[in-house]
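#struct-queue
[09:14] JT: dropping the first one here, sequence first, then the structure tokens:
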Amino acid sequence: MGAIGRRSVLLGAGLLPLLRISGAAAQAPGPFSLPPLGYAFEANEPHIDAQTMMIHHDRHHAAYVANLNAALKDYPQVAAMPLEAMLGKLAELPEPIRAAVRNNGGGHANHTMFWGVMGGKGGAPSGSLAEAITRDFGGLEALQGAFNKAGLGQFGSGWVFVTVAKDGKLGLVARPNQDTPLQDGARVLLGNDVWEHAYYLKYQNRRADYLAAWWNVLDWTRIAARFEAAKAGTLAI
């Protein structure tokens, strides 16, 4: 094997762990930090590839955190607010940082939720969450159909979310860019990122295939815990 071949093998074997460490550490100082993924980059294979997970978490999400901290540097009173409160009061924030908080704070909140509902093996929910899905959507299959349609219909970059109210009622919304239901005082049960960086390496322009495959990596135990926390009023982001 030539030098270039040996180098490629070494990079393939060692680059992802190194990038995981570097992405988690290279953050601008401030009140917010990049949360650990909580599982290996390859945990969502074959539905979401490890390289996409690494780039998405260690670069894209890290950039939102760094930009948010930078925007808040001269606004200590805002920086002391919980992220969900900050996003819920965008109109009251100082005008010079409002757009930065909306975009980067929303990106941080959305991605933190996103990693938290994945890393599982799909399947179906049970218990009170399954009952709520049947009540409000007509069952998991109907929810998946409506959710995927909303994600496919989101023009350009954005997200599709299932929201949950304190009474347990579920809703479905799509939002552009890094906008989040937190801006409206709602809480997110689960959501999928339909920015191209979330799927393009594996699926290219086949967003519909990505949306369909994504259900196979959900962790319904974690999502059920979010559901109960939302009803108890303790779910933050």
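[09:21] JT: and here's the second one, same format:
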Amino acid sequence: MKLIDGKLLASKIRYKIKNSLIGEKTKPGLAIILVGDNKASRLYVSIKEKEAHGLSFYFEKYIFPGNTKEYKVSKLIQSLNQKPNIHGIVIQLPLPKKFNTDRLVATIDPLKDVDGFHPENVKKLLQLKKWTSKSKDAIIVPALIYGIIEMIQSLRLNLKNKQAVIVSNTKTFSEPLKHILILKGLSVKVWIRGKQSIEVLKNITKKADLLITAAGSSNFITQDMIKTNSVVIDVGMNRVGKTVKGDVDFDVVSKIVHAITPVPGGVGPMTVACLLRNTFVAMLKIEKIK
């Protein structure tokens, strides 16, 4: 079994960013907006802040209480859209339930949408006809999905015509990822939680050469659902007591697969590194337009 080390891969991405910044007159600027008191979200924001400072990015953080009116957050986003030293804007998700997440994300200038969730950026991704090494520079690939693709590519396996299965809670995550995997030559099936039965899930995961799960429930994927010698990418971050666990029953599943991501230390570090890379690329594009 090969452990896909997200920390190591993330450090390589940060190293490339650091070298690319040599000679640049402008610092990439990242602004993160946090609403509410979600402990996990606060942790993620602090990690992003630390990594941004580690690369000498310009960084701004805005924290609102959960009872903040949506128009105040929208007004801030519009202000950040106009700030020349801010090249990336991130709304830390999830937002409190009273907020319209799609509406707020759509308020972000597409050029500064470094999370890659703006409908205009998603549309561009879904219109891609071919995936090349230049694709991730031509469009903004969601940081989470970009990280997953990089982890898969690090294995240097021939997955063409292989079966991939995406387990997800939302099409916002599954659709862009599905499209890229198809462009890379895989056959892809998607299982959306709440839309299909567990029996359907077991039938398709048993045939999956590549399984990517973001179900949001610890030990949701068990050994009897896994194909031997497959690759498993665990996106889940589920707090169990004082520990964090993924969607996969790691201790038993890891014994039969070819490669698997750990939780923590897998997808998480890669997502942050890819977010910073997106911010750097956004800076280059924005400064070129000026």
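[09:30] RK: nice, looked through the second one.
[09:31] RK: The chain has a mean pLDDT of 94.
[09:31] JT: good to know. The domain at 26-109 is CATH 3.40.50.10860 (Rossmann fold).
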